[in-house]
Amino acid sequence: MKKIEIKAEQFFELLRLKDTSMWSVFAQMIDGEEKEIIFLDRGDKILFNYILPANAEKLEEDRKEFSKQFADKMAHFS
């Protein structure tokens, strides 16, 4: 499995500047092979990782599950 390291702060700033979602970027990276995307902090410490699926259907399932989990967590802050 190919590993891709991404500086999280720069990545999310670029998404904000381009007014796009990480899911759109992930969709463009799909090529039929799973990839491990590793998000790093400024000191190259691993913040989290995501296994990019080999197909768009699985990516959509992941997006929906992420959205649900995020909404659930945000509800606890209200």
TrEMBL record:
Designated name of the protein: Uncharacterized protein
